[in-house]
Design goal:
Structural class: alpha/beta
Radius of gyration: 17 Å
Mean pLDDT: 94
Strand order of the largest sheet: 3-4-2-5-1-6-7
Number of strands: 7
Largest sheet: 7 strands, mixed
CATH architecture: 3-Layer(aba) Sandwich
Distance between the termini: 17 Å
Bound molecules: adenosine-5'-triphosphate, magnesium ion
CATH topology: Rossmann fold
Low-confidence stretches: none
Helix content: 40-55%
Strand content: 5-15%
Shape: globular
CATH superfamily: P-loop containing nucleotide triphosphate hydrolases
Length: about 260
Amino acid sequence: MAKVIVLTNQKGGVGKTTSSAALVAGLQKCGNQVLAIDLDPQGNLGFSLGVNIEDGHTIYEVLKGEIAPGDAIRHTEDYGDIITSNILLSEAELFLKGEDRKLRLKKALETLKHRYDYIIIDTPPALNILTVNAYSAADELIIPMAAEILSLVGLVQLKETIQAVKESINPRLHVLGILMTKFFKSTTLSKDVLDMASSVAGQIGTIVFETKIRNSVRVAEAPAHGMSIFDYSPTSNPAHDYRVFVAETVERMGA
Ligand SMILES: Nc1ncnc2c1ncn2[C@@H]1O[C@H](COP(=O)(O)OP(=O)(O)OP(=O)(O)O)[C@@H](O)[C@H]1O
Ligand SMILES: [Mg+2]
């Protein structure tokens, strides 16, 4: 039965998609059956994993109830299965109606969970009905956070949303940790943000991952080639860091 991991932070550009892609590729390389789900209307995860996102069925049709979840799955050569996204998903607040509006994704995944070891969900930079659907379906949340100024803005809101979902729809929801990205080991700024992240982690009742993902232009180059960082630049700092992060994730989930 698959464990569902959701990468979330309503702040944009903090490494949600990059970390989702690395987790998908890394878990797959360790021999797991992995399903990636792109819940961001921008469609970056599918693109990053080399899928042509211009055609094929998407999560939009699944959430609308137009097709069976299994029919939206695309098979990739190197990165397992994926359900891609569509820009129409940005109208979710309008088309997700009815009492089960927060539970559509969870219900869709129930029919797929037995096929996989992990389901990894990338989310948009927002706290909206899509994120709530993701939290409702999740076992674990991972909060990527860039080691840059203003990165912590909005974390109180994030904390409140997590709490609200826990109290209403998904009492089992657990925050696995905060993942520092774009990290420079030597700068005071990175250290300051790390200190603040530790304090936020304490308030949310979680930890900051031991592994920090170092900054490298290699990370930005990989998606254009439709390759994970492990394949695009296996010896780069972030490839090393993401390998350790995948191991830390598996270990912490087993703990
Ligand atoms: N470790 C890193 N080093 C250098 N650049 C990075 C690193 N991680 C991410 N980036 C770059 O930062 C940008 C934002 O990353 P990414 O798309 O993963 O963030 P996101 O949180 O998914 O953004 P959005 O909120 O728009 O979906 C991208 O251009 C990406 O290549
Ligand atoms: Mg993204």
